[in-house]
Structures are given as structure tokens and as C-alpha cells.
Amino acid sequence: MAGYFAATLVLGAALAPWLWQVARAVAAWSVEAGWERLPVVGSWIDSIQRADFTRVFNRAMLVAALVCLWPAARLLRIRRGQLGLERNPVRWRDVWIGFVVAAGVLLVMGWGYLQAGIFTWRKKVELGAVVQDSLMRAAGAGIMEELFFRGALLGLVMRVWPPRVALAFVTTIFAAVHFLQAPPALVIRDGIEAGTGFWLVGEILRVFADANFLLAECATLWAAGWILGEARLRTRSLWLPIGLHAGWIFGIGLYAGLTRAGKAVRRDEYLPWIGETLKSGLVPLAMLALTGLAVWAYGRWGRRHSGGPVG
Predict the structure, then answer these.
(1) 307: left (phi over 0), alpha (psi -120 to 50) or beta
(2) CA angle, 197 as apex, 210 and 254 as ends, to 5°?
(3) b (16+ CB within 10 A) / e for 257-276
(4) Which residue in 32, 225, 237, 240 has its CB near the most CB atoms, within 10 A?
């Protein structure tokens, strides 16, 4: 497992500059072909054109993790059907309940921030574009990350450790991987070279020296990962975790597109309690606890007569 994560880090850092060049070339070719006028494709092209290298780096790390997963599964002698997942007869209900609960709790908290003057509304916003972009990101992250972390990786680790021990390990990895992101103030759009990914890894690791940032981010990410894992174990499927994960991404993206943090927040005066996004701080951690309680209640009573696994 240690070799797997080391290989993922190296491959992701090496892959990021090439993925950057390919994405930019595809976007340019799509514009020349006139595809930017298409509803969904146009939004995707615009997202690529606005993205900086740090966002592509995050995607490269996920691609590397997926690529390295196959040899890891082979070394651990994992076969299909051994990941502890079952058919879910109420999968779409699980997705929508997870989505609404996760997004709803976050947005209610965000509304409280606005009422307190901690955040303010943006003056010029294209609501349709913000909603569409947030939904696309939610679907991508919710499906891909849950297939990897709670599907494949948790299934692999449960082959050698008890479920809750395996969940603690995977949740820690989940939080650590999300730390492999550039500082928010760092924007890179020019001078991308073959070694830029490795340089960015060094910049990212410097963030670990900021105790307030670690407390504000790590605790929330760890709690989110644990809730997603519990949802997976209790339902023995990925549909509820996908809904929860997508709901969080949608709520965070929608709020970021419609509001902006106040000056005090941008100066980190509210850390570790409140950060610049809905996922940063100990206040979001408390709201995650409410979401976790709702997931527990749904798994215990809401699915009892649904025909799906209760856990």
C-alpha cells in the first residue's frame, strides 16, 4: 500500500504537465470546431479554459490513483465481487436523499454566514452557469472519488483489516490526498514544464506547517470521509455515498459562485472556525456531525422497509 501511494504521487506529478497540454489543445480544437456553442460541451470547454494548472494537477493525481489501482489489486489478489458491495434496489432514492441532505445542511450554514456578514453576495452572477458548473463538478467528483475511495480502496483494505479499522485507514488517506492541493492563492497558467508537477508537490507540502489550516481543513475532511465510509458500510453500496459527496461538492461550488468571503475571512482571522469555503473550519465540522447523524438515522430506520441493506 505504501508503494501504491508513492507510485500515485510520482505518476500524478509527472502526468500533470502532459494532461495540461492535452486539455488546452482539446479545448482550442473544440472552439475552432464551434462546439463552444453547445449547452453542456460549451460549459466544459469554458471550464477548461478558465482552469489553472493546480486544478489539472488535482485531476492528474486522481487519474494516477486509478491507473495504479489495477496492479495493486493484482498484487493483493483481489477478484471481482470481493469488495463487499451488493445490488441496491433503492439506489436512486439513496442518491437523492444523500444529495439533498448534504447540500441542504451546507447551504443552511452558508445562509447563516451571510446573515452574520461574514460572506456577501456577488454583484454580477450568471446563476444558470454557476448551477450547471456546480452540477458537473458534483457528478464528476461524486462518482469518480466514491468509486475509488469507498469502492475499490476500502474494499481492498477490508480484505486484510476489520471494516472499521479499514475505514479509519482509508479515511485518513482520503483526507491526506485532498491536502495534495495547491494553496488557494497560488494560480499557475504560464511556464508549465515537465517538472512543474514535482515543484508543485513541494509547494503543497509547505501547507502542513500551518497549524490553523491543518485544524480547519483536516478535521472536516476526515469527518466527511468517515461519514461517506459509514454510508457505504451500512448500505453495502456506493449510491448513498455518491449522493452525499455530490451534494457537498454542489453546495460548496454553488455558494462559492454566488458569494464571496469578507476581508476578515480572507485574512484568516476566523481560522480555525471559519475558512474561505463551506468546507473549511470547525463550524462546518459541527454541521457535518448533523449530516452524519442524519445518515445514521436513515441507515437505521429509513431503509428498514425499503428492501435494501440496512447494515
Answers:
(1) left
(2) 65
(3) bbbebbeebeebebbbbbbb
(4) 240
Domain map (residue ranges) of the chain: 84-302
Q: Fill in the DSSP letter of residue 303.
A: T
Per-residue model confidence as pLDDT tens digits over 211-269:
666 666 778 889 999 999 999 999 999 999 999 999 999 999 999 999 999 999 888 88
d(C-alpha 237, C-alpha 299), whole Å: 12
Cell of 106: 451546507
3-class DSSP assignment, residue 279? coil
Contact 61, 177 (CB under 8 A): yes
CB atoms within 10 A of CB 239: 22
What letter represents residue 112's amino acid? Answer: G
Q: Phi/psi of residue 261, each to 5°? A: -70, 145
The three cell numbers locating residue 57: 494537477
The per-residue pLDDT for range 259-306, each reduced to its tens digit, is 999 999 888 888 888 988 898 888 999 999 999 999 888 877 766 555
Q: Compute the Cα dihedral for 275, 225, 201, 13 and give only its sign.
A: negative
**Cα–Cα distance measured from residue 235 to residue 286, given in angstroms and rounded to the nearest whole number:** 24
pLDDT of 182 reads 64
Separate counts of helices (H) and strands (E) for the chain: 12, 2
Return phi, psi of residue 119, to 5°: -120, 160
Question: What residues does 260 pair with on adjacent strands?
Answer: 120
High-pLDDT (> 70) share of the chain, %: 83
CB neighbourhood size of 145 (10 A): 23
pTM over 0.90: no
